[in-house]
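Page header: ASSEMBLY MODEL / three components / 962 residues total.
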Amino acid sequence: MAQTALPASRNSANPLNLKKWLGVSPFFLFAILFLIWPSARLMIDAFLDTQGRFTFANLAQLFQNPTIVSSYLLSIQISAVTALGGGIFGFFLAYSVTIGGLPKALRSMLVTFSAVASNFAGVPLAFAFVATLGRTGLITAILKNVFGVNIYTAGFNLYSFAGLSLTYMYFQFPLMVLIMAPALDALKREWREAAENLGATVFQYWWHIALPILMPSILGTMFLLFANSFGAYATAYALTGGSLPIITIQLRAQISGDVLHNPSLGYAMAVGMIIIMAVSTIGYIWLQSRSERWLK
Amino acid sequence: MNENLPYFAALKAFASRARDRVGDLWSWFWYLLGVLYFVLPLYATLDFSLHMQRDTISLLAYQKAFADPGFLKTFVYSNILAVITILVGLLLVVPTSYWIRLRLPEARRVVEYITTLAIVIPAIVMGFGLVAVYGAPIKIPFTSVQLTDSLLNSPVGTNFIIIMGYTVLALPLMYRSIDTGMRTIDVRTLTEAAQSLGASWTTIIVRIILPNLRASILSGALLTFAIVVGEVTISSIMNVPAFSPYLWLLGQHKAYEPAALSFASFLLIWASMGIIQIVTGGRAQAAGAH
Amino acid sequence: MTKKILFYVFPLVLIVSMILSACGSAATPTAAPAASGGTGMDALVAAAKAEGTLNVIALPHDWCNYGGALDEFKTKYGLTINEITPDAGSGDEITAITANKDNKGPQAPDVVDVGYSFGEANKALFAPYKVSTWDTIPASAKSADGYWYGDYYGVMAFMVNTDVQPKVPQDWSDLLDPAYKGQVALSGDPRTSNQAILAVYASALANGGSLDNAQAGLDYFSKLNKAGNLVPLISNNGLVAKGETPVRITWDYNALAGVDSFNGNPKVSVVIPKSGRFGGVYVQAISAYAPHPNAAKLWMEYLYSDAGQLQWMKGYCHPIREADLRARNVVPADLAAKLPDVSGAVFPTDAQMKSASDLITKNWDSAVGSDIKAAP
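Prediction written out in full:
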């Protein structure tokens, strides 16, 4: 196996050098066995009815069944809201430590915190938010005792769309920070100086130069945030247990659940989920590659 | 007036330099808002967890939480599984990444698509997929010859499948870590130099490549660790005694101990991320939601 | 090269997994089993030990002190216990049996503990077995052919976190008070959970209904929901302790166990509604598809032995053989004193239970429309 000279890889004389592909075969084998085939199997099962015959009925349910449609809509809404909110908040945070000129120490603190927060999702995050904004949470108590505002009588509820979105934001905007900070770094100072020299105001600089350059990165990351939120299960389940029928929770209820239990329908929902996730992720990848044109 | 102009100019220059150094109000506003958002839930959890005994601050919740045999059992289990997942992940990614850089750049795209696929397929879909495929007896395809019984029928089999599931979940991060590391060390030159000195492949990988990848390996390992210990979705579908399902269940019956454990896991993640920061010199990674 | 590495890794992974599972089922020294019969029992114990594992489902450790019962069983016989979804409801347990008919793995339950009305309805899923103490189980609480058998009972109560809600309701009608807005919760989904179904049934008695007419209960909960007092969450002791659901409608034994575990923080009041004690019985059954049938039988023998019944008593439940235990004076005095008084409790008959269950599970969505789901 050992060779003394490394061959040129663009080996036009031997386009399909099987022996070389053998080297990555364990990886592909692993991917096929534990990623591709199980997902494919689920997607195939979506097209089968209880007798094993081919049918479109399950997928049709995705559009006809009002519970499922509203689940998808709810998930899309939450994902869009947290992607947008997390994206904007994260952008300004990233801005503050890069162009905004805050001291370097603050930047590394922010990056560490962002890494921690984006990994803190799941059960502990749900508990943390209950301790913060739950009926007897810290912020609830402070607002009630210090400011006289009872958010619960005012209609707020942690186990709702608003509550879940607030919780999701906790790991959404750190992700934005981590991705946008390097992008903002890449915004060359010379461009700003050149614009100033030509008489542009700050607003004009941003509107005509900086934002257009950054837009693929910003939008792309928002797509990533969308996918991130759409596929999340653990945080939502730990927080609301199912009182908010987002699509991941509905899926679980259908496949392994109590009252509902229609696995084929669950698999169809999985197909729908994968399609939406794929569209979002492809959007992210495409926009990222475009952003690299200016932000090398 | 004219003789004052240079002073004004100097003042203006000073002000703008000061602004550059300290940042403007706008930036401070957002930064402080961000800090508030980060810190408040953590502080609330800590505060709640310290008040298990009425009217005093005590570590009782922590003592009780750590003394619970269920905690030890599930935490150890998840840790062991995390270590194995890290090993499997490294064994998959390091040789593959190395091979791609050295011999097979064409495969790079495909491998990246696969890691992207691991992001696109949500954990819950993957969990049910694994159950669907491995919950049935393993047969030779297109025949009815049964090789083994369903892998999920035995604890060994279930552990094996769930480790593979965890590895898939951690794959994108592990790959990105190792790949970034490989990019910064010049793999070709190192390999050529080593080979010209007569080193075997084992020597090259173990004694030259791996030590240079220490930072990336540690980074990938810690991220995988965070993912495995925090994993609830696949773990609860397969009913394994993992830590996060235990934490969720604890929250059904107790109030203070779950808060204590939540804060403790935050500290653990912070320590891990801090180590990664130090070791990689600032190239932080994000795991995203589970 | 890579293949060689993989070749050595694959068995390594398998070996470590085996070590892991061995760690889980490490052999504990087995005490000599207290055989209540002769060689029949010994043979059962041996067969159960050969199986080595018992799969249980929906047994929270603080429900009737199942934690104590499971520990004692493990110590006595050295079996490993695999606990599936401790917070499942009766409906979930039945689904677990049907969904895992062909599966002999750790997701398939050997035994179930379900609400009374779930017993007869799902007879086809059970395997009959009569424990050695069969005759001391009251006839009204078991199926004559041994498919299911009552295990314990309690009465419906309110559990109130008085730190958050100092005003303690004394009866069902009090719960409609605006002071309880967003504070009252059931302990399960009324479409599948026995506890929740019976809570609705119990409220019927206090609102003009009767054991034969549970509709009043649905109407009551509809009012409770419209008033905004009903929280669409499955309450549990964790939520009560956190103050998220300060008023929990649950069995008295759950509330009392919660008082113990909270240890004063928070302070909790347990109230049995003035309008009447509503009793609910649970039943045990062995799954017809049990992966470990002998372990299942041994578990039943243990539960219906004096030791098992006393464990339930420690959890504030009235075990089904209580009359027999008291007659033979085997109940410790302090334990007997702690048990809640359930004299005069009304128990629905089989037929009444079935019609009420049907009514409630089918009409909850339309009558009340509140989707009760689990929470932290």
